[in-house]
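Summary for the steering committee. The consortium agreed at its last meeting that each partner would contribute one worked example illustrating the joint modelling workflow. Our contribution is presented below. We chose a case with several input lines so that the handling of multiple components could be demonstrated. No manual editing was applied between input and output; the record is shown as generated.
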Amino acid sequence: MLKRLDWGKLVVYLALVLFSLLYLMPIYMTIITALKHPVNISLTTAWKLPGNINWGSFAEAYNTLGPNFMNSLYLAVSATLISAIIGSLNGYVFSKWKLPGNEIIFTLVLFGMFIPYQIILIPLFRVLRQLNLYGGIPGLALAHIVYGIPITSLIFRNFYARIPESMIESAQMDGAGFFGIYRRIILPLSMPGFVVVIIWQFTQIWNEFLWGITLTRHSANPITVGLAQLAGGQAVSWNLPMAGSLLAAFPVLIIYILMGRYFIRGLLAGSVKG
Amino acid sequence: MQFKSDRIVALLILLPSLILVGIFVYGFIGQTVYVSLTDWGKGAALAENPEMNLIGLKNYGELFSGFLNSRFRQDLVNAVFYTLFLVSGALGIGLILAILLDRGPKGESVFRTIFLYPMSLSFIVTGTIWRWLLAPRGGINRLPTMVGLPAIGFRWLNSRQSILNFNWQNLPQITAIVVGAAFLFIAFRQWRSGLKKKGFLSLIPTLILLLWALWGARFTPEILSTPEQHGFNLATVGIIITAIWQYSGYTMALYLAGLRGISEDLREAARLDGANQFQYYLNVAIPILKPMTMSAIIILAHISLKMFALIFAMTGPDNAETSHPAVLMYLTTFRANNFAKGAAIAVVLFVMVAVFIVPYLISAYRERRA
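What follows is the complete predicted structure of the assembly.
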């Protein structure tokens, strides 16, 4: 009996380790390639560890992608913070102030997070041009904030739904109004909700590509566009795109490794039910 | 016990968001549909405000049956295959990973982190990395040489082979047969669950569709003047593998949350009934996971139907073999400045996504009201 159990466990661990190797293999390849000198990169020795390490790849990648990195940072930080505030207020209204047609309006808002963004791209492009926001970071931030309304409202609404009505009612007894309740009850309990939304939005905005390439000029290109251009050229030796990939992955990977729990919560919130 | 003035404040807080969503989502969708029905000023297309003339469904007609737009039709076929393989691959591997982790093995959180980290990366990052891994004479193809086997020769991203080919002229008949078969399946299920009359009624569309496909179709005009082969391009395999690698962690997280929600009592009951681990998952757990499977199908289908960045990073936008309507929409609109046709491609994509999303949102809405 004991032996059979151990066999089962062994198979499970073996499978888990095999899968882990499969999932880590690309990162391994990225790191060793980034650390090689261009002359030492060849298809036949691709899997071998670098002989003498070339830290210069990262400096070189940062020289090219540095401005893009900063663009993405400004964009992601500003748009994420505004998104989170709007989402929190919307979630508060959707969960605690059920206005007439609450559910149907909420469903109509949710629809906005499932559309393929190609369907709004042409009007968005034209409207940003008319508003003189085309090409720069503020226009891109506006797009991320507006199309972030559905997901941020959803996450906060589901989060606030767990705050008991009795707490709201007793605050009303004490004479608190709309903002009083928000400040005294909702906001102090909101921390985990804000963390989930901020992580989610930051990751989404940081990783976004379609708007980045269609709505910004060269000087305002986010990191994803910069990386695509760096890696797209045929003549480039592979240490540079690999170092660039690590640079572009760095902030989101750090967030994910440190706060993975919250990242998963945002991920699961994307599925509307439950 | 809410005061009226507070309710007005609540409405005022929500209103800007509603207006923005109204304009940026619904207004813009309407405008794109309108643009797709125009010629966008033809020669004067680059003008700030081109004079647009309504031309009806001409752009759509050209996409589906125009001589010059065969790339769109291959892209559409690619999108269907991308969706089929990404959804089934990510569901299958995600389920296996979730079951492996279900009993909480040692180091569970480390494994979970490893399986899920690709989800946090940009498609551009994963695309760049995997392009190097899938290089024809390096990367993955050299792995077998480490254990003394010959290298793989498959060209993951630039194979010119294509399988499961069909003639686009036969598409109406193929569609009729597929839909007819679906009705047959529905009829069979209704009949088996005792709804004999309903099952019989469901047979009627099956018969009509099959009869038309096999016999009536010769009386309707061809949609294309010449035969045109489309199929599953093997150059997309590399992109599909990358997408599965990135998204199977997501289905794992979804399934794991579902498995953890199953009560210990139910598991105990299954064991007392003599079910082993395998039977427990097959007969008890997987049926309970059905809502997670539905959610995952919706989200993954939605992702693969708008796949742009991954293809852009792996094979570039100009590669017709691996292209996708989302890529073609970008090229048509922003490179060729053909906004009207770009809008039509976007509408086709939108309709394909809406077929998945709208029923899902309606059922979620009903659940919340219940």
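Chain A touches chain B through 96 residues (CB under 8 Å). Chain A has one domain: 56-269.
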